[in-house]
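Course assignment 3, question 2. Fill in each field.
Student: A.L.
Task: Predict the tertiary structure for the chain below.
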Amino acid sequence: MSDPTPVTVIGLGPMGQAMARAYLDRGHPTTVFNRTPSRADALVAEGAKRAETAAGALDASPVIVLSLTHYQAMYDLLGPGVDLLAGKTLVNLSSDTPSASARAAAWAADHGATFITGGVMVNPPLVGKEGAYVFYSGPSEAVERHRSTLEVLGRVDYRGDAPELAQVWYQAMLDLFMTILASTSHAAALVGSAGVPAKDFFPYAEELIGQMPYFMQGMADEISSRSYPDQGGNTAMMAAGMEHITDATVEAGLDPGLPAAVRDLYRRAIAVGRGAESSTVLYEMIVDPAAGRG
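Answer field:
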């Protein structure tokens, strides 16, 4: 069995620190770098090597894992040391747009490096634990070559060769996650306006969220076929409900932005004559931003 691959982790926010600890725990020689040096102190005490400069961080390991606020930070940090990129594998687990991932892969290739895009689908305390997984995309050969190193962070969920694919999947899952959290806060505020404590509301919210797979049945087939038969809760009926939710929000003196955005999708679907179809037809309003406007 080969020795664990040396790894450099650049960016030591909560996620970067969790990843560095996972590598240390699994016996990987781990170098760490952060523009604020003190963020490395605890990791160094646990056995990591501190790189004093970004160039030193690059030089220390064949695999460079980046956990930064955005991709521009990668260019800012690594730009002065591009001569050291040749032969390295950059695993960028930072959040940005799909096009940013595609540009970064081209930039890395121009400097002789291999680029793997990733998106970590758990919060920092769960990195490296059972159930953790990470979306990856980029050259399949590189992902396979470094699979054992990547698996330290969680299950490798490879999405394909195009560098932007992992970023698309990551952002789509965050889209779902963040809108659920926002709508839960909105609903808590709505019942709260009537004096209902959040602790009384949340068991009902959890029960409803647990029922969502039932309500999502058939949606994938409808979207794939672009056919939206009425299943007993058509768009016109749902639209009326969204009008009421938005009105109730306004009456309560709350910010109506979230329900109003959903209400407007329904209004547009009605405007183009799709009220008799299932509410999944909102997909068509999303992929055609001009539909129903005017």
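Instructor remarks: The two ends are 65 Å apart (CA to CA). Residues 7-160 form a domain with the Rossmann fold fold (CATH 3.40.50.720).
Grade: pending
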